[in-house]
Amino acid sequence: MSLTKRIVLTLLLSIIISIIITSFVSNYMINRKFETYLIEEQNTKLKKVKDIVENLYKTKGPYLNEEDISKLSSLEGVYIEIKNDTGKTVCNSHNNHMDHHRRMMRNMRKPRIIEGNYIEKEYPLYDNNNKIGTLIIGYMDKSYLTESAIIFKETLSKSFLMSTFITTLIGFIISIVLSKELSYPIINITDTANKMRKGDLSSRSKINTNTKEIKDLSNSINYLGETLQKQDNFRKKFTSDISHELRTPLTTLQTHIEALIDGIWEIDEKNLLILHEEVDHLTKLVNELRDISKLEELELNLNKSYFNISNELEKITESFKPIFKKSGYEIITKIEPNVTILADKDKFKQIIYNLISNSYKYLDKDGKIILNLRNDKDCVHIEFKDNGIGIHKEDLPNIFNRFYRSNNHINKKNDGSGLGLTITKSLVEAHGGKITVESILGKGTTFNIILPVK
């Protein structure tokens, strides 16, 4: 079942059930209260008849005019019979037998009055607290349901039915509008997701809605599309770069080996050194491809232990100083001594190696890297500051993305895969830390790492 139909049917069913329950309860309560009111009115009428008859009987006694009783009986729609204190009938509202009176009262009833049972009530008549007789009032037990009362109850029932129909119709219209408002954006988002699944990563969800959850879902789908598209572009670019990089050394190796086979080249140290350099280049490219595999399954199992981070940083920088000196560069350290942290020593070394190597690639003449270590109670701050070529402002948000390599200001030494900083960031975050970068084009770059002590 489509979302639209499900929403319409659910809302409609909820409305109908609610209306039925409300109508039933309201109709029952109103009818009950109304009948109670009518019964109270009937009892008030009977008491009124009793008071009138009692006054007449006290005044006239045995000489009570039967015509007055008949008029009162006809006016109030009841049978009246008066007995003296010995039980003898003094007068009644009709001289025929009781059954005839019942038939008369039934004939007097209007056609719309509900059929009921004839009942009689006895009321003692008093004169100064002395019983002087008995009053018998006969009436139909449903006589309080007059035509007006029946019309009122029927009108009430009809109004509930009409309200049910109108409310159901309005609810149906509202449910259709609401279902379309909810389903159309979701259908649009689903279509966008399906297009992405089929390879169209440029597809974007375009919806106009005020529903926060749907808007958030649309934004998430669009963000996912943008991320996938960037990753796809990065992969394509990386594949193209790797293909080009592999082709060059392989072609060189093939040419040189053929020259050796044909005797054009002699097998001497110089020619073997050229082949060795090309093999090293290929090995480096293969290692970068291996890094990609590592990155894909970078659910790190950290082997943490306490170690002196100050000593480790000193050792790492010492190992890099010959390389820096050979290129005319300088590496300066400002390390706070005896700083200890709980971390994976090998992964920590990889973080430092990656950052120093990355900075080295982008140094120019008189290049310099300053490494600072500062302990701050619960965490340590490590800063790498260089005076290299810097990073373009547009590239800064992307430098930690996998496969990303800037097209601007590429240094000739930058032949990497674009994975070093991505792996570094993942390693830092695996330790519960944070890495940020600041850079000014042409002046240099600063990386800041914050790692928890424990």
UniProtKB/TrEMBL annotation:
Q: Where is the Histidine kinase domain?
A: 241-454
**Kinase among keywords:** yes
Q: Which UniProt keywords apply?
A: Kinase, Membrane, Phosphoprotein, Transferase, Transmembrane, Transmembrane helix, Two-component regulatory system
Q: What is this protein called?
A: histidine kinase
Where does the record place the HAMP domain?
Answer: 180-233
Swiss-Prot/TrEMBL catalytic activity: ATP + protein L-histidine = ADP + protein N-phospho-L-histidine
Where, per UniProt, does this protein localize? Membrane
